[in-house]
Amino acid sequence: MGQRVALAVHPGSGQGSAARIAGTVAERLRAEVDELTLIAADTPQRFRGLVADCRAAGLDALVVLGGDGAMHQAVQCCAGTEMALGLVPAGTGNDFARALGIPERPGEAVETVLSALRSGRRRVVDVGRADGVASEGTRWFGTVLCTGFDAAVNARANRLPWPSGPRRYDVALLRELVSLRSRPVVVDTDVERVTLEATLVAVGNTAFYGGGVPICPGARPDDGLFDVTVVGRVSRLQLARILPRLRTGAHVRHPAVHTLRASWVRIEHHVAGTPRWPVFADGDALGALPVTVTCVPRALHVLV
Q1: I want to staple 13 with a disulfide (CB 3.0 to 4.6 A). Which of 66, 116, 238, 260 is the partner?
Q2: What local confidence, expressed as pLDDT, does residue 175 receive?
Q3: Does residue 179 carry a pLDDT above 90?
Q4: How many helices (H) and strands (E) in the chain?
């Protein structure tokens, strides 16, 4: 093939499932590429640093064995370059792989990666760029950037040791519902400006977050636009009635939900002294409001 490839294994993906199958995946890749570099780390911080080093290594592809958190770090490396990203899902949510139609089974996903390497086939997709987040500066994201109630759910889900899989988000959601608070925000875009008491704002490059929840059901990763879902001020009871609709995407028809499509979005609090909402993207904490996000068309090559 003449291919130089790195395999990055996230240490905690899928509660250790990635580590258990890493040897098998590496063996399958090594049999068909000219050079395989294995990237493994004992901490997420070390993983982040090793993946970042790949950007200057002249690789043809970076294959990630893990979930959306691992994907998020790989996107920082691959976005805006010719280096292709390969995904072998082995995490809790796997929402980016889901949006791109990548097989859920790791063995099938590896064969998809190898087929794309053999044929030179790539899917070129959009990515989001988040600027001005308080603690992180500029970051790329593949799936959804969120703030408000859903970001709080994400933070809690990341802390829960049980249950595994998408049910973890459901448990976190119920616990956060007890402390629900709306806050005054401005959602400014290239198409309209919305000022309201909001419960959550989600900016979708793809449709899913939280292990398959289509929060932005119309989002597509290759149309040059974000789909934005804004939930206005609602009571706990009203939100509890909206939540069952999330799994089907029917929540966008609720009168408290406002949707729009835009190429850039800025979200900020418009009342001085308001406690700043946290910001998450691809399930990773980025910082806190304000944030400006831009859809960057055709910035990422994916092996599908």
Answers
A1: 66
A2: 85
A3: no
A4: 8, 15
- CATH number of the domain that residue 196 is part of: 2.60.200.40
pLDDT of residue 244: 87
What does pTM read for this prediction? 0.92
Number of domains making up the chain: 2
Q: How far is residue 243's CA from residue 163's CA, in Å, rounded to a whole number?
A: 19
Q: Which of the residues 60, 150, 282, 284 is marked catalytic?
A: 284
Same domain, 116 and 132: no
C-alpha to C-alpha distance for 258 and 87, rounded to whole angstroms: 33
Question: Are 91 and 189 contained in the same domain?
Answer: no
Residue 282 annotated in active site: no
Whole-angstrom distance, CA of residue 90 vs CA of residue 81: 25
Given 104, 121, 138, the domain boundary residue is: 121
The verdict on residue 304 lying in a domain is no
pLDDT, position 172: 83
d(CA 251, CA 171): 19
Instruction: Output Rg (C-alpha) for the chain, integer angstroms.
Output: 19
